[in-house]
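testing teh design pipeline on a random one, pls ignore if ur not involved
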């Protein structure tokens, strides 16, 4: 039986992993390590048989103790919002870089077999703090792969449809009120389903070569296309055509077009 430790495991991806494992690998035991008490308790109610530990990856001692006895680590904990990263640089570095280093050291000292870090397209030629810190996480895990027998790999992908912080639920709420706000309708982003994200993660866990960054082939859509599709689901295609699509301007730290591979 595999024992899997998931940092940030009460988040959207962590819950998707638990749902996938319930179908495909029911004998896998998980420890969910998370600092969000509300998400933590919600996840516990849905998946009660697993172990739940409140903790922060910035707290190395608690992280190392909680990780003991596991053979696999999925590192999903991070500061993920671009505007918050721009306004809280020190915290972004503390969580995404120093916290990731703590995860790597704790995994090595606990003789964990495999670690997979979750990265983002914003780490490719980054222009914002979030992307810069995630690129450093990638490079740190690649370096850590040579520190011991622990295998470190990474996944890098774009936006997961309807994940926490996704713009799609916002578009749907706005559409019901008759309008949709867009930073730039020509802006493009990569999209994938949460099932695709979990399958990529599973592939990374099976990757024999350490230090690998697995990058999927993804389709890119303009934000105008995404907004219309989200609105069409919420209010129907005819009403979606007649909505007031408002351009509010690109936010600081945003690219017009993201990249997955430099």
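output:
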């Amino acid at each position: 039986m595999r024992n899997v430790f998931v940092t940030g495991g009460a988040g959207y991806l962590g819950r998707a992993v638990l749902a996938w494992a319930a179908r495909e690998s029911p004998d896998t035991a998980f420890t969910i390590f998370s600092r969000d008490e509300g998400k933590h308790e919600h996840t516990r109610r849905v998946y009660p048989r697993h172990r739940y530990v409140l903790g922060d990856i910035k707290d190395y001692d608690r992280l190392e103790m909680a990780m003991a006895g596991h053979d696999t680590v999925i590192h999903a904990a991070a500061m993920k919002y671009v505007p918050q990263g721009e306004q809280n640089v020190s915290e972004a570095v503390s969580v995404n870089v120093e916290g990731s280093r703590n995860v790597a050291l704790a995994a090595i000292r606990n003789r964990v077999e495999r670690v997979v870090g979750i990265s983002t397209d914003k780490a490719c030629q980054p222009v914002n703090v979030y992307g810069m810190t995630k690129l450093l996480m990638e490079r740190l895990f690649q370096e850590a792969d040579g520190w011991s027998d622990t295998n470190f790999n990474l996944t890098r992908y774009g936006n997961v449809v309807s994940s926490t912080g996704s713009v799609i639920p916002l578009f749907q709420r706005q559409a019901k009120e008759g309008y949709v706000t867009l930073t730039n309708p020509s802006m493009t982003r990569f999209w994938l389903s949460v099932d695709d994200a979990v399958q990529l993660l599973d592939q990374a866990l099976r990757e024999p070569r350490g230090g690998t960054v697995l990058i999927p082939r993804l389709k890119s859509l303009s934000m105008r296309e995404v907004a219309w599709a989200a609105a069409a689901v919420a209010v129907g295609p005819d009403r979606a055509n007649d909505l007031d699509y408002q351009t509010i301007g690109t936010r600081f730290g945003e690219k017009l077009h993201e990249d997955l591979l430099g």
